[in-house]
């Protein structure tokens, strides 16, 4: 896909790899051409996001079921129609986003989820909310204390996670938590985009939430790939075991062997 084909006003995702963590940012396209995309200034709680020269930056655009990715972009700030914007310059043509990277694997593990209450918005947030220093109530500001609840991680992908809790969350609420793994404890922050009640009889949890990652440990991707490879390995072993059993049965009964199915490949 050509960068200039991204419609103005559409949401784009920016992934930033920095010091062992991956951050996910979102903004809207304000201007596009063959080599550059300008987006609405990325800021949170009045602070503009600052890109560092050593950051590894990718821009992702999703169009229905298709995803496109531009890697190793150069970021900066400029003015567009007298308004500050962020821009991203690309090196190469966009490529179809590899769906293997979005492969979802089951974790089925429990962990603790934390959040802060943002008094101004009423939302649960994954980072400590700071008041505006110009707020008259700043002098009475007290450092917020996070709340913690036990929950369940059902499955995870590179970009999102499905969790189960016994507390009600709203869309745009966010939580922080740790994903247990063989690489150690992987810190993560995620924002709720979908929610549903769990009606399964005997379920330990009442609510299911689909979330997108705001920040993850970069080792999470390797962990997902390792789980995927192990699943493919087991699938391949079962395939050959069943194949040998069929051959053994055919030899004993004198049956004519059927044409073999296409073998399973780790690249599937």
TrEMBL record:
- Bias type Basic and acidic residues, positions: 255-268
Q: What is the name attached to this protein's record?
A: PilZ domain-containing protein
Q: Please list the GO terms describing molecular function.
A: cyclic-di-GMP binding
Q: Which organism is it from?
A: Butyribacter intestini
What InterPro entries does this protein's entry cite? PilZ_domain
Q: Where is this region: Disordered?
A: 244-268
Domain PilZ per the UniProt entry, residue ranges: 149-221
Q: Where are the transmembrane segments?
A: none
